[in-house]
Amino acid sequence: MAYVLDPTRPVADEVRRTAVELLEKAVEHLRAEPEPSVKDVHQARTSLKKLRSLLRLVRAELGEERWRDLDRRLRDSGRALSALRDADVGTATFDALAPSLAGTVDGGTVARVASALAADAADARARARDQSTAGAVAQDLAATLSAAHCWLIGARGFSALGPGLGRQYRLGRSAYAAIGRRPDDEELHDLRKRAKDLWYHLLLLGPVWPPVTEVLAREAHHLSDLLGDDHDLAVLRETLAGRHWGTAGEGGPALMEAIGSRRSSIQAEARRSAARLYADKPGPWVARLDAWWATAAG
Predict the structure, then answer these.
(1) Distance of alpha carbon 181 from alpha carbon 271, whole angstroms
(2) How do residues 246-261 score in pLDDT, each as one tens digit?
(3) Which of 14, 101, 198, 210 is deepest in the core (most CB within 10 A)?
(4) Are 52 and 76 in contact (CB under 8 A)?
(5) Which of 48-52, 149-153, 276-280, 293-297 has the lowest mean pLDDT?
(6) What is the 3-state secondary structure of 157-209?
């Protein structure tokens, strides 16, 4: 089934079903033969992110100790798989930036930096394959899968989800308020994480009123993507300022200026998106979704 919670069915059953499906998909991708591809690893990591967002909704029901243990284990599994994804981020980010560099950064600089980043990616992919972590992660997730069938969720209906939804929306509003006029990279990254949670939660709650939740989910996805692009540019800037500053040569300052200009544009659009998504206070936000859930449940 899709990544949604059906309001017409017991919420405990829906949470367990969704968790089991996500874990099964992750294990399947990580056990692909002859070995997991980059796409398989990406799909597995996405399943883990979706599962962590789901569990944040039922944190109170699971209990703080169990939730923290599950979240830590899933987080560590995702980090163990990140090397293959991270290998190509630098090249993909620079390739997306390259068309805007014409006329401001000389072609020689662009070519040298592109070549250096491609070499970095090749080395990172080789190291990730040598580590062979996919099998170990799959084994850990299989153990979590066995336990997921028995997770206890006592509250009925939206009352199992409301506290977690309010908590995460409150964190998102706080992250938006914290970015200020000159946000640092950590503040922007925190808002990105909250925006991704909001996107996943809106997908889960999509059936309560699809014409509205679909629009909100698209906006949250857009905000998450914007801040993801900004984060990748921040990492690229650090990489160039560090081990590849000599590679950039005289074109380095112009390249840094271009990255800064692109980030400013992205951040301005992200502010507008976040202002729309976090316009409500948590109480009215949760109450509105509660009413929509009750109507959908019939």
Answers:
(1) 10
(2) 888 888 999 999 999 9
(3) 198
(4) no
(5) 149-153
(6) HHHHCHHHHHHHHHHHHHHHHHCCCCCCHHHHHHHHHHHHHHHHHHHHCHHHC
* pLDDT value of residue 27: 97
Looking at the whole model, is its pTM more than 0.70?
yes
- The whole-number pLDDT of residue 131 equals 55
- Check: CB of residue 147 under 8 Å from CB of residue 159: no
Token pair 């930036």 is found at: 97
Concatenated DSSP letters for the chain?
--S---TTS-HHHHHHHHHHHHHHHHHHHHT-SSS--HHHHHHHHHHHHHHHHHHHHTHHHH-HHHHHHHHHHHHHHHHHTHHHHHHHHHHHHHHHHGGGGTTTS-HHHHHHHHHHHHHHHHHHHHHHHHH--HHHHHHHHHHHHHHHTT----S-GGGGTHHHHHHHHHHHHHHHHHT-SS--HHHHHHHHHHHHHHHHHHHHTGGGSHHHHHHHHHHHHHHHHHHHHHHHHHHHHHHHHTTTHHHHGGGHHHHHHHHHHHHHHHHHHHHHHHHHHT-S-HHHHHHHHHHHHHHHH-
Cis-peptide, bond into residue 210, ω within 30° of zero: no
pLDDT score recorded for residue 126? 75
Residue 85, pLDDT above cutoff 90: no
Q: What CA–CA distance (Å, rounded) separates 44 from 25? A: 7
Q: Where are the domains of the chain?
A: 10-81+133-156, 88-111+161-298
* CA 298 – CA 293 distance, rounded (Å): 9
Question: What token pair was written down for 108?
Answer: 């020689």
